[in-house]
Write a structure and sequence with these properties.
The protein has two domains: 212 residues, no CATH class; 161 residues, Up-down Bundle (Four Helix Bundle (Hemerythrin (Met), subunit A)). Helices cover 70% and strands 0% of the residues. 34% of the residues are buried.
């Protein structure tokens, strides 16, 4: 299947789709920088920053009572949101918003933190444009493969929801549940885009695949396809990574609470005060490693080049992720490592999802996966 040429339409769609995925990962990295530098409230309003499309650079550009102004705006928005959630039956979440004390606290203006947060927003807006272009270039698939178009369209809608959640993260002054949902939705968007891009490539090769399968493949007797149980283990590994990322987000929230209680001093003591969430996060990391080593071993036995590359990428990312975690725990949570740790975890999720798609496709295909040393029929 590697010998067919992608059509211009497919190449355009894949280019924009891949560009969008890379941009989302860059946004996750920048979002990690925002959290690690404490810049999440660098802009107290949304989508503007201090009421302007171009943020101020000095406190003298702001009214003397700017804290009271933006606190009042944020509290009014939160109360409206909480009342709506309460009517919808989400009383617990609504109560959390009402009771969250930091929504009444306004941070001092800091030009560096303001611009870090503003760059984060600009990148988010750019991704919105990229996702829209992905939908535009997916229009031809309405006739060829509607699933690809609807995947792109769903990612566009969820990007809009993500932007709204971003505004709630700001208005609630980084309410933990909002931050966690914001991160989880970013991973869902990544998965939808990866699925669309991957399906577009394979759809282009369907004609070549039918030619390949027109005659028996001269494969060795031990050629085999992935078992159904392997696909289940892959799902387990993917969901475990998803949970681990959510736990990591909660650990980061605990770091914020501990650091604020300590007056942002004594950083070397923060890890010891993180509690059970940090212990669970560390335990689950061991489970992620063991499960992926097992799944990687089983995939490697299939002797399929693409799967082996995905296995290698998965294990490398897990190794780097664990290394970053050790550095964070052992060296007083260095701010520079925190966004790297988060981005590696998101990258691991993406690679695992691509592996799951590859295995699912291999199981459905009538073509067996032959060992690398077996002769194969080649399409000219």
């Amino acid at each position: 299947m590697n010998n067919f040429h992608l059509s211009p339409a497919v190449r355009r769609f894949r280019f924009v789709g891949i560009l969008t995925v890379v941009s989302v990962y860059l946004l996750i990295l920048v979002g990690g920088v925002v959290r690690s530098t404490g810049s999440g409230m660098g802009c107290p309003d949304w989508p503007k920053c201090f009421g302007s499309w171009v943020p101020p650079t000095e406190a003298s550009q702001l009214p003397a009572n700017y804290k009271e102004i933006y606190t009042a705006q944020r509290v009014a928005k939160n109360q409206k949101l909480a009342r709506t959630l309460q009517k919808m039956g989400f009383a617990q979440v609504a109560g959390s918003i009402f009771a969250h004390p930091t929504q009444y606290i306004e941070t001092d203006f800091n030009p560096v933190k303001t611009w870090i947060e503003y760059v984060n927003r600009l990148l988010g807006a750019l991704i919105g444009v990229f996702v829209f272009l992905t939908v535009v270039f997916a229009l031809p698939y309405l006739r060829q493969d509607r699933v690809i178009f609807w995947l792109a369209f769903a990612s566009f809608l969820l990007t809009g929801v993500q932007g709204y959640l971003g505004s709630l993260v700001v208005s609630t002054n980084l309410l933990p549940v909002m931050v966690t949902v914001h991160m989880a939705l970013a991973l869902v968007i990544v998965a939808l885009l990866l699925y669309a891009v991957d399906r577009a490539r394979e759809g282009q090769g369907s004609i070549a695949l039918r030619i390949l399968n027109a005659a028996p493949i001269n494969a060795s007797a031990d050629a085999k396809r992935p078992a159904a149980t392997l696909q289940i283990w892959l799902w387990a590994a993917l969901l475990l990574t998803f949970w681990q990322i959510v736990l990591g987000t909660q650990v980061r929230e605990q770091v914020d609470i501990v650091s604020a209680a300590a007056g942002y001093v004594g950083r070397e003591n923060w890890v010891g005060k993180l509690g059970s969430v940090f212990s669970l996060h560390r335990t689950v990391s061991a489970a992620v490693l063991l499960l992926n080593v097992y799944v990687g071993y089983e995939l490697w036995q299939l002797a399929q080049q693409r799967l082996r590359k995905l296995v290698a990428a998965t294990l490398i990312l897990i190794g780097l992720e664990i290394l970053a975690g050790v550095v964070l725990a052992s060296f007083a949570l260095p701010a520079a490592v925190q966004p790297v740790h988060l981005t590696l975890a998101a990258g691991l999720f993406g690679i695992q999802f691509l592996t799951l798609l590859a295995v699912a496709r291999a199981r459905k295909s009538p073509e067996t996966i032959a060992p690398t040393d077996a002769p194969r029929r080649v399409v000219a």
